[in-house]
Amino acid sequence: MTAKAMLCRCEDVTLDEVMEALEAGHQDIESVKRYTGFGTGWCQGKQCVVACARVLAKATGKAPQLPITPRPPLHPVALGVLASLGDVEEG
Amino acid sequence: MARVVVIGAGIMGLATAYNLAKRGVRDVLVVDRTYLCGGASGRNGGGVRAQFSSETNIRLMRESIAICRDFATEMKINVWFRQGGYLFLARSAERARALEENVALQNRCGLPTRMVDAAEMRKIVPELATEGVRAASFNPGDGVVFPWPFVWGYARAAEDLGVTIRPFTEVVGFETSNGRITGVRLRPTRLSPLDASDEVLPAGDATTEACDEVVICAGAWSPKVAALLGVALPNKPHRHEICATEPLKPWLGPLVADLTDGLYFSQSMRGEIVGGVAVDPVPEGINQQSSRRFLTTYSRALVGAVPVLAGVRVLRQWAGCYDLTPDGGPIVGRVADPSNLTLACGFMGHGFMMAPVMGRLLAEHVDTGVTSELFARWSLDRFARGDLVHENMIIG
């Protein structure tokens, strides 16, 4: 992979930006997500989390880390649709 | 050996550590059970406002906003600070009166806050549905920041001054002698697999860090940490949820807040509409899980307030915990026993915006041992004395 390889297409995060985050001391996947913004765009990490986790594992020499905490909704949903849904109890 | 151990690497702990180091205090250690931005400092809406109902909060927040304005220059990091104002909506005569009283007080404190009518509300936010809104207050100097770089800015600046920050390090106990803390028991942690229950797993053996002073800035976790010292705090964690939409071109100036249903929303510099709403009841204890109920409640409130947003899609939702006290005021300052323990918690969801100014005051308090009138008023023993504080501008 080249330094400019795109790891997160939604938020335009490249390989060298992830490496820079590691060098800045962000060594776990949740921190790298926040520092680079990977996984916070349209797909919420579905396309990029594996690539980023692999880069992290290789660079730190540690076992691949957990995926980032998934953030609902699974796909983007319009506010108007959500507003029309019935009430649910949490459980 | 640490001169000061700060528990909690959220904005409050990091701002305190940074200001301690700036005062020349050496050997400051900040620990956090997970990663930077893992707690409320990384989960809030980034609102920074001086529209409060108590003179104390108004004056402190004026100073905090001034620090925010200079933050990028001082810390060499872009925090995306944008002063679009806060627009507080009132839907009842009673609330409108309360806003008017608050505006008068804010004016006496030197803020340019003013009451605005429906026509002016629509000038500020043309898409706002103003039917049923009796009045609103607007302070153009309030604003929003992007919380994450704010946290990193303090962390990096603190480290540059010699502060040690140890994430993934949990406090599991204390060593005390003659009414003083002599050491903090620390254990490395790791996140538990796909578990949103907020438990961390041990990742090694506990060791003792000897210390002179301890500051608890652990937000909603503060009662748990203080309990290890036999200090009972009346704070309760209270989950608040929040969500972000797809990015839109810049159109929304202020953060809009409605104290009736706890709805608030603003536009981030990334273009997303970021906001939340009060949901009642919420699960007991510390809980950072997202609920579908929140999404529905929020979407109804937001589409009601700005109908044109109905077609805009929500990208993600998350949750964090407010740290609530019985009277709505924070708990700050030294306690009687142990004598070298300082508390900085119970900030009612305002801790992030108050941290820039509180970090300075806390560092001075820890360094010099001098208790100001403010810290006396916000002390833990006010609950035993029955000398409570008041604040009615709390969102959600």
Describe the structure in your own words.
The complex is a heterodimer of chains A (91) and B (396). Chain A has 91 residues and is mainly alpha-helical. Chain A has one domain: Orthogonal Bundle (Arc Repressor Mutant, subunit A). Chain A contains four helices and three strands, in the order ββαααβα. In chain A, strands 1-2 form a two-stranded antiparallel ribbon. Chain A is elongated. Chain B folds into two domains: 2-44 and 148-235 and 326-385, FAD/NAD(P)-binding domain (3-Layer(bba) Sandwich); 83-143 and 237-322, D-Amino Acid Oxidase, subunit A, domain 2 (D-Amino Acid Oxidase, Chain A, domain 2). In chain B, 30% of the residues lie in helices and 27% in strands. In chain B, strands 1, 2, 8, 9, 10, 11, 12, 18 and 19 form a nine-stranded mixed β-sheet that branches. In chain B, helix 1 (11-22) runs parallel beside helix 5 (147-160) and helix 2 crosses helix 8 (351-368). The longest helix of chain B is centred in the N-terminal third of the chain and has 21 residues, at 55-75. Chain B is globular, with a radius of gyration of 21 Å. Chain B starts with a strand and ends in an 11-residue tail after the last helix. Chains A and B meet through helix 2, strand 3 and helix 4 of A and helix 7 and strand 17 of B.
List the helices and strands and how they pair.
The complex is a heterodimer of chains A (91) and B (396).
Chain A: E1 6-8, E2 13-14, H1 15-23, H2 29-36, H3 49-60, E3 77-78, H4 79-84
Antiparallel strand pairs in A: 1-2
Helix pairs in contact in A: 1-3
Chain B: E1 2-7, H1 11-22, E2 28-31, E3 47-48, H2 55-75, E4 86-90, H3 93-108, E5 114-116, H4 118-124, E6 135-139, E7 143-144, H5 147-160, E8 164-166, E9 169-177, E10 180-191, E11 200-202, E12 207-216, H6 222-227, E13 236-245, E14 255-258, E15 263-267, E16 273-276, H7 292-305, E17 313-324, E18 331-334, E19 341-345, H8 351-368, H9 373-377, H10 382-385
Parallel strand pairs in B: 1-2, 1-12, 2-8, 4-14, 12-19
Antiparallel strand pairs in B: 3-7, 4-6, 5-6, 9-10, 10-11, 10-12, 13-16, 13-17, 14-15, 15-16, 18-19
Helix pairs in contact in B: 1-5, 1-8, 2-8
